[in-house]
C-alpha cells in the first residue's frame, strides 16, 4: 500500500505568475487501511514554494480522513515560522469530473499544527463501491488530487534590544540579527536597527540572504514587520549579481526605545520567490553543419540538481533545449521539472525581454526514459540574432534566463510516462459541454429580449433541481413579458404602472442572465473612508452597572431621535416600494445591519434588507443571483426616472452591485439588498442546519448564513440595552478607523457576537473589562465560542477550519462567523491601540 506522486501541473494567475500547482497521486491498494492493518499512510513528498508537503490518510471509525502535512526542515527555527496557503484536496472520479469528492480551505501551518484536513472525509462504503467511480477499473487504485496556491511564509521573533545586548555596530548604528530560518532551500535572517543613524532616529529592518546562491538569482517579494508597523510590499533580487546581500526599509514611526523596553517583535512575510539562472550562449558562430551549441557548464538548481541548456540550430526560430546535466540519477529517482525561458535584452532601458512561446513546460527526467530534453521556442529568428546590431546580442552571445518554477522528485524510477485514460475522457466531455453551452448562448443572443423563454432560464437557475417555478409562473409565456395578474391588494389606478415595472424587472433579469453567461458582469465593492478618533474618551463613561442612555457617550455615538426617526421612515418607504414592485411572492423583508438591530451610530447608518421568498431556489446562487441583482439595480434606476406618486421613493444614489447584493444610498442611509430562500416558511431550520453542516464551499455557506437572518436579528435584539450600548461604542470605534482594505474590517455581526460573549463572560458592561476580554478572544488562535439558544451544539457535527478562531453562529451551527474576516492582523493591531487608550496592560490580554 502506497501513495505516490505521478504527475503535476502549473496554472498561471491573472498576473501570469505560475503560483498554482496541481499534484496527482495514485493510492495503491486502500483495502489495508479499511481492514485495520495500518492506521495511517503518508504519501511521497511534493514541493511547493520551497516547502515540502505530503498527503496523510487515516482511518476514523467508518470514515477515511485526509490531511495535508507540512514538513519544515529546520527544527531550531520551527517555533518562529508559519506557512499560510490555500489547498484543495480530494478524490478524482473516473466517470465524471463533476462528481469529484474534495474540500477547499485556507490554513496556517505552524508548530503544533502541521497536519490539517478532514477527519471524516468519505465513508469506506462509498470509497470502495466500484459504482461510485472512485476506484479504477482494476478495483485496486484511487487517484487523489492536491491543488496548492497563494502560499506565504512568515517568520516572527522577539529580539533582545537591551543595553547589554548592544554588541554589534556599523556605520548605521547598533543592530541586532535574528537567528536564521529556512525558506526556498536557503537560509535567511533579519537585521534590525532600532534607531538608524542619518534617519532621524527611525527604526529600519532588512532581509539578508545567509547562504550562497549557487549562481542563481532569487527574485523575492516580501513585507517586513516591526512591532505593529509593516512596510509596503518590497521587491529585490538576491544572489548572483545582487548589489547588496540585504535589502529593507526604514519605517515611519519611532520605536519606544527606553530603559523599560527590552524586547521588540520583528517579522517578515515572504509572498513569492522566483529562482532563475542566466546563461550566456554563443549565437553568431552557429552553423547548420555543427552540433547544437551547449552552455559552457552544467548548472545547478536550488536543490543541487544539474542541468544543461542547448541552442538547437536545426530550427528557423530560436529554439532552446533543456536536458539533465548528469547521465544517471542516484537511486534511480525521477525528476519532474516545470520551467520557462526568457531571452534577455542587452539594453533593458529601451527593449523588453522576449518570453518563449506558449505556457511553461513540464517534463519527466529519468534514467529509463529515452528523451532528448524539452524544447522551448522564441518568436525571433536565429538569423536576426546573428546580426550584431540587435538588442539581444553582445559579442556574439545571447543570454537566456531559465526560470525553474518547480522541481519534484519521485521516489521511483519512471520507465514510461503515466497514463490516465479516464482523465482524458473527462477533458473530452468537458470540451463538448463547453461547445454545447456556447451554441446555446449564441441561440439566446439571436432572440429578442421580449421573446426569450423564461422556461429555459428556469432550468438554469437552480443547481439542485428546485427550480423557481412560482417565480417564473408570474409571467405569461405566450404574450412576451406581459405579467399575469398579481394576487396583491393594489389600487386599480396602479395596474398599468405595476405592469410596466414588472416588464422592466423581468426584461433586465433576462438581459443580465445573458451577460452573466458571457462573463461580463463586474463586481464593484463599496468602501468607506473614516477619520480615526481616540476612544479613550469613553472610558470614564463606562460604569459597572452599564452604559445608560443618559450618559454623555450618547452625544458622541448615538444619532439624535430626529435622525433615527428619519432613517426608519426612509427604510419603511424602501421596503414598501420593494414589496409592491418586485414581481415575486415576498414572505418578508428582514432588516439587519446597525439600524435593523438597533445598534446605529453617528459614524454610519446602514441597513441590510434581506428579501425572503419561497419562490427562490434553495441553492445554485452562482447561476441565478447575478441576473436578479442586476435586474434589481435597473429597477432602482427606473424608480429614479419614473416617480410613483402613490408610493414615492426617495432618490437612490451610488447604486452599485456585487456578486451577492445591490448597494445604494437613500437619504443618507446605506442600504444593501440581499435575496434568499425562506427556509422558515418553505422548509425547516433543522433542514437548513443539515445542509449547512454538510456544505464545504464557503461561497454556498455564505448564502446559508444569509438565510438565517431572522434568528440572527432576534439574537441581537434580545440583548440587554446596556450590552447594545457597548456594541454601539465599539462599532463607532471601528468606523473611525482607516482600514487598509475593506476586507480587513470586521463586520457588524462578528463584532456584536464578540461583545455579547465578552459581556456574558465578564458579567459586566464595563467598557474596560469588555475590551480586555474581547482582546483575549482575538489574540487567542484557539478561541472557541459556541451558543445553545436555538439549537443543541452537539446535535450537528461539523468541522471548522483553523487558523481562524471558532465563533459559531448562534443562528446556524454550520457557520463560523470568524470566516467573514479574511485577515486578522490589522484588527489585532487596532485592538492593541484601543486597549492602550483604556490603560489596559497588554500582558493582561496575552496571558
UniProtKB/TrEMBL annotation:
InterPro entries: 2-5-oligoAdlate_synth_1_dom2/C (IPR018952), MATH/TRAF_dom (IPR002083), NT_sf (IPR043519), TRAF-like (IPR008974). Pfam families: OAS1_C. Residues 684-837 form the 2'-5'-oligoadenylate synthetase domain. Transmembrane segments: none annotated. One of its GO terms (molecular function) is 2'-5'-oligoadenylate synthetase activity. It comes from the Eukaryota. PROSITE patterns: 25A_SYNTH_3. One of its GO terms (cellular component) is membrane. Belongs to the 2-5A synthase family. This is DgyrCDS6586.
